[in-house]
Protein backbone atom coordinates (compact mmCIF):
# COMPACT_ATOMS: atom_id res chain seq x y z
CA UNK A 1 0.00 0.00 0.00
CA UNK A 2 1.40 3.36 -0.95
CA UNK A 3 0.22 6.42 0.98
CA UNK A 4 0.07 9.80 -0.72
CA UNK A 5 -0.14 12.88 1.50
CA UNK A 6 -2.18 15.60 -0.20
CA UNK A 7 -2.21 19.09 1.35
CA UNK A 8 -5.68 20.70 1.41
CA UNK A 9 -7.35 23.87 2.72
CA UNK A 10 -4.96 25.90 4.91
CA UNK A 11 -3.35 23.14 6.99
CA UNK A 12 -5.18 19.85 6.37
CA UNK A 13 -3.70 16.65 4.99
CA UNK A 14 -5.74 14.15 3.01
CA UNK A 15 -4.27 10.65 2.71
CA UNK A 16 -4.75 8.68 -0.48
CA UNK A 17 -4.06 4.96 -0.13
CA UNK A 18 -3.14 3.11 -3.29
CA UNK A 19 -2.99 -0.64 -3.70
CA UNK A 20 -0.72 -1.23 -6.70
CA UNK A 21 -1.68 -4.91 -7.03
CA UNK A 22 -5.41 -4.38 -7.51
CA UNK A 23 -4.87 -0.79 -8.72
CA UNK A 24 -7.53 0.56 -6.38
CA UNK A 25 -7.49 3.59 -4.11
CA UNK A 26 -9.04 4.72 -0.86
CA UNK A 27 -8.97 8.09 0.81
CA UNK A 28 -8.85 9.15 4.44
CA UNK A 29 -10.70 12.35 5.41
CA UNK A 30 -11.13 14.10 2.05
CA UNK A 31 -11.34 17.76 3.06
CA UNK A 32 -12.07 18.48 -0.58
CA UNK A 33 -12.35 16.38 -3.71
CA UNK A 34 -10.31 18.15 -6.36
CA UNK A 35 -6.79 17.18 -5.26
CA UNK A 36 -8.00 13.61 -4.68
CA UNK A 37 -9.52 13.40 -8.16
CA UNK A 38 -6.28 14.71 -9.68
CA UNK A 39 -4.21 12.09 -7.89
CA UNK A 40 -6.65 9.33 -8.91
CA UNK A 41 -6.36 10.53 -12.50
CA UNK A 42 -2.56 10.37 -12.30
CA UNK A 43 -2.74 6.84 -10.87
CA UNK A 44 -5.50 5.80 -13.30
CA UNK A 45 -7.09 4.12 -10.32
CA UNK A 46 -10.71 3.98 -9.13
CA UNK A 47 -11.72 5.09 -5.65
CA UNK A 48 -13.23 2.17 -3.73
CA UNK A 49 -13.42 3.53 -0.18
CA UNK A 50 -13.65 6.73 1.84
CA UNK A 51 -12.50 6.37 5.43
CA UNK A 52 -13.77 9.24 7.60
CA UNK A 53 -12.56 9.77 11.16
CA UNK A 54 -15.23 12.29 12.19
CA UNK A 55 -17.89 14.57 10.79
CA UNK A 56 -16.14 17.96 10.66
CA UNK A 57 -16.32 19.58 7.27
CA UNK A 58 -12.54 19.77 6.86
CA UNK A 59 -12.61 15.94 6.93
CA UNK A 60 -15.76 15.08 4.95
CA UNK A 61 -16.11 18.11 2.68
CA UNK A 62 -15.09 16.15 -0.43
CA UNK A 63 -17.31 13.09 0.15
CA UNK A 64 -20.21 14.05 -2.09
CA UNK A 65 -18.13 15.18 -5.05
CA UNK A 66 -16.03 12.01 -4.86
CA UNK A 67 -19.18 9.88 -4.68
CA UNK A 68 -20.54 11.64 -7.75
CA UNK A 69 -17.44 10.46 -9.69
CA UNK A 70 -17.17 7.06 -7.96
CA UNK A 71 -20.69 6.03 -6.87
CA UNK A 72 -19.45 2.53 -5.96
CA UNK A 73 -17.05 3.86 -3.30
CA UNK A 74 -17.99 2.73 0.22
CA UNK A 75 -18.10 5.47 2.86
CA UNK A 76 -16.94 4.41 6.35
CA UNK A 77 -17.33 6.37 9.58
CA UNK A 78 -18.08 6.01 13.25
CA UNK A 79 -21.41 4.51 14.33
CA UNK A 80 -22.14 7.58 16.46
CA UNK A 81 -21.68 9.84 13.43
CA UNK A 82 -24.88 8.56 11.80
CA UNK A 83 -26.47 11.41 9.77
CA UNK A 84 -23.41 13.63 10.19
CA UNK A 85 -21.13 12.17 7.47
CA UNK A 86 -22.30 12.65 3.86
CA UNK A 87 -22.91 9.33 2.12
CA UNK A 88 -21.94 7.19 5.10
CA UNK A 89 -22.81 3.53 4.55
CA UNK A 90 -20.75 1.67 7.14
CA UNK A 91 -21.13 2.50 10.85
CA UNK A 92 -18.02 1.39 12.69
CA UNK A 93 -17.42 0.57 16.33
CA UNK A 94 -14.39 -0.25 18.46
CA UNK A 95 -12.83 -3.50 17.30
CA UNK A 96 -14.42 -3.54 13.84
CA UNK A 97 -12.22 -4.40 10.87
CA UNK A 98 -11.93 -2.63 7.53
CA UNK A 99 -10.11 -4.05 4.53
CA UNK A 100 -8.18 -2.28 1.85
CA UNK A 101 -5.97 -4.21 -0.54
CA UNK A 102 -3.79 -6.55 1.48
CA UNK A 103 -4.16 -4.49 4.66
CA UNK A 104 -6.72 -4.97 7.40
CA UNK A 105 -7.43 -1.93 9.55
CA UNK A 106 -8.62 -2.04 13.14
CA UNK A 107 -11.12 0.54 14.29
CA UNK A 108 -10.45 2.42 17.52
CA UNK A 109 -13.29 4.39 19.10
CA UNK A 110 -11.56 7.59 20.25
CA UNK A 111 -14.15 10.15 21.42
CA UNK A 112 -13.00 13.49 22.83
CA UNK A 113 -12.51 15.90 19.92
CA UNK A 114 -16.00 14.82 18.88
CA UNK A 115 -18.26 12.31 20.57
CA UNK A 116 -18.12 9.95 17.55
CA UNK A 117 -14.45 10.14 16.49
CA UNK A 118 -12.77 6.93 15.31
CA UNK A 119 -9.22 6.09 14.20
CA UNK A 120 -7.99 3.43 11.80
CA UNK A 121 -4.92 1.38 12.70
CA UNK A 122 -3.34 -0.80 10.03
CA UNK A 123 -0.84 -3.18 11.69
CA UNK A 124 2.31 -4.02 9.75
CA UNK A 125 2.08 -6.83 7.25
CA UNK A 126 5.67 -7.90 8.04
CA UNK A 127 7.51 -7.59 11.33
CA UNK A 128 10.15 -5.23 9.91
CA UNK A 129 7.55 -2.84 8.45
CA UNK A 130 5.75 -0.03 10.32
CA UNK A 131 2.08 0.07 11.12
CA UNK A 132 -0.03 3.03 10.05
CA UNK A 133 -2.45 5.02 12.19
CA UNK A 134 -4.96 7.46 10.74
CA UNK A 135 -6.14 9.39 13.75
CA UNK A 136 -7.90 12.45 12.32
CA UNK A 137 -8.00 15.21 14.93
CA UNK A 138 -7.40 13.01 17.98
CA UNK A 139 -3.58 13.00 18.13
CA UNK A 140 -1.42 15.60 16.43
CA UNK A 141 2.34 15.72 16.38
CA UNK A 142 3.12 17.48 19.64
CA UNK A 143 -0.56 18.01 20.41
CA UNK A 144 -4.08 16.64 20.43
CA UNK A 145 -7.48 17.74 19.21
CA UNK A 146 -9.53 20.32 21.06
CA UNK A 147 -12.30 18.90 23.20
CA UNK A 148 -15.41 20.02 21.33
CA UNK A 149 -17.81 17.23 22.27
CA UNK A 150 -15.93 15.17 24.82
CA UNK A 151 -14.42 15.29 28.28
CA UNK A 152 -10.79 15.07 29.41
CA UNK A 153 -11.56 11.62 30.84
CA UNK A 154 -12.77 10.42 27.45
CA UNK A 155 -9.80 11.93 25.65
CA UNK A 156 -7.27 10.36 28.02
CA UNK A 157 -9.03 7.04 27.50
CA UNK A 158 -8.88 7.51 23.72
CA UNK A 159 -5.24 8.62 23.71
CA UNK A 160 -4.41 5.65 25.97
CA UNK A 161 -5.59 3.31 23.20
CA UNK A 162 -3.29 5.08 20.77
CA UNK A 163 -0.40 5.11 23.25
CA UNK A 164 -0.74 1.33 23.59
CA UNK A 165 0.14 0.82 19.91
CA UNK A 166 3.74 -0.02 18.91
CA UNK A 167 6.38 2.73 18.71
CA UNK A 168 7.04 1.63 15.15
CA UNK A 169 3.78 3.16 13.93
CA UNK A 170 3.55 5.99 11.44
CA UNK A 171 1.00 8.53 12.66
CA UNK A 172 -0.88 10.24 9.86
CA UNK A 173 -2.40 13.28 11.58
CA UNK A 174 -4.92 15.36 9.66
CA UNK A 175 -3.34 18.78 10.28
CA UNK A 176 0.07 20.42 9.99
CA UNK A 177 0.02 21.94 13.48
CA UNK A 178 3.35 20.51 14.63
CA UNK A 179 5.59 23.57 14.97
CA UNK A 180 3.00 25.59 16.86
CA UNK A 181 2.29 22.62 19.11
CA UNK A 182 5.95 22.15 19.93
CA UNK A 183 6.34 25.84 20.78
CA UNK A 184 3.70 25.29 23.44
CA UNK A 185 5.18 21.97 24.54
CA UNK A 186 8.56 23.59 25.23
CA UNK A 187 6.89 25.96 27.70
CA UNK A 188 5.63 23.04 29.82
CA UNK A 189 8.39 20.46 29.29
CA UNK A 190 11.48 22.60 28.81
CA UNK A 191 14.06 20.05 30.03
CA UNK A 192 12.91 17.23 27.73
CA UNK A 193 15.90 16.62 25.43
CA UNK A 194 13.86 14.53 22.99
CA UNK A 195 11.40 17.39 22.70
CA UNK A 196 14.16 19.92 22.10
CA UNK A 197 15.60 17.72 19.37
CA UNK A 198 12.19 17.18 17.78
CA UNK A 199 11.63 20.95 17.74
CA UNK A 200 14.92 21.50 15.88
CA UNK A 201 14.01 18.85 13.30
CA UNK A 202 10.53 20.26 12.82
CA UNK A 203 11.78 23.83 12.54
CA UNK A 204 14.21 22.80 9.80
CA UNK A 205 11.49 20.91 7.94
CA UNK A 206 9.07 23.84 8.14
CA UNK A 207 11.73 26.39 7.16
CA UNK A 208 12.14 24.34 3.98
CA UNK A 209 8.36 24.18 3.52
CA UNK A 210 8.27 20.43 4.15
CA UNK A 211 5.66 18.36 5.98
CA UNK A 212 6.21 17.01 9.50
CA UNK A 213 3.57 14.31 8.98
CA UNK A 214 3.72 11.35 9.29
CA UNK A 215 5.32 11.34 12.69
CA UNK A 216 6.36 8.21 14.62
CA UNK A 217 4.34 7.10 17.60
CA UNK A 218 7.56 6.33 19.49
CA UNK A 219 8.64 9.97 19.05
CA UNK A 220 5.24 11.21 20.20
CA UNK A 221 5.35 9.04 23.32
CA UNK A 222 8.64 10.71 24.30
CA UNK A 223 7.84 14.28 23.29
CA UNK A 224 4.09 14.95 23.21
CA UNK A 225 2.81 16.21 26.59
CA UNK A 226 -0.70 15.11 25.62
CA UNK A 227 0.51 11.49 25.80
CA UNK A 228 2.47 12.07 29.01
CA UNK A 229 -0.16 12.83 31.66
CA UNK A 230 1.62 10.42 34.04
CA UNK A 231 5.04 12.12 33.71
CA UNK A 232 6.11 13.47 37.09
CA UNK A 233 7.72 16.60 35.62
CA UNK A 234 4.58 17.56 33.73
CA UNK A 235 2.46 16.81 36.79
CA UNK A 236 4.66 19.19 38.79
CA UNK A 237 4.32 21.86 36.10
CA UNK A 238 0.52 21.78 36.35
CA UNK A 239 0.50 21.10 40.11
CA UNK A 240 -1.46 17.88 40.06
CA UNK A 241 -0.73 14.23 40.64
CA UNK A 242 -3.90 13.08 38.92
CA UNK A 243 -3.39 11.94 35.30
CA UNK A 244 -6.73 13.17 33.93
CA UNK A 245 -6.42 16.49 35.74
CA UNK A 246 -2.87 16.83 34.41
CA UNK A 247 -4.13 16.26 30.90
CA UNK A 248 -7.07 18.65 31.39
CA UNK A 249 -4.84 21.43 32.72
CA UNK A 250 -2.38 21.02 29.83
CA UNK A 251 -5.26 21.11 27.37
CA UNK A 252 -6.64 24.23 29.06
CA UNK A 253 -3.23 25.95 28.89
CA UNK A 254 -2.89 25.05 25.22
CA UNK A 255 -6.36 26.48 24.50
CA UNK A 256 -5.09 29.82 25.86
CA UNK A 257 -1.65 29.66 24.22
ZN1 LIG B 1 -12.10 18.11 13.63
FE1 LIG C 1 -9.83 18.99 11.44
TrEMBL record:
User: So which cofactors does this thing need?
Assistant: Zn(2+)
Kinase: is it a keyword of this entry?
no
Q: Cofactor: bound how, per the entry note?
A: Binds 2 Zn(2+) ions per subunit.
Q: Which residues bind Zn(2+) 1?
A: 54, 56, 113, 137
Q: What are the transmembrane regions?
A: none
- Which amino acid positions bind Zn(2+) 2, per UniProt? 58-59, 137, 175
GO MF terms here are: hydroxyacylglutathione hydrolase activity; metal ion binding
Q: Which UniProt keywords apply?
A: Hydrolase, Metal-binding, Zinc
Query: Reaction catalysed by this chain?
Result: an S-(2-hydroxyacyl)glutathione + H2O = a 2-hydroxy carboxylate + glutathione + H(+)
GO BP of this protein? methylglyoxal catabolic process to D-lactate via S-lactoyl-glutathione
Q: Which family does it belong to?
A: Belongs to the metallo-beta-lactamase superfamily. Glyoxalase II family.
Designated name of the protein: Hydroxyacylglutathione hydrolase
* Source species: Oscillatoriales cyanobacterium SpSt-418
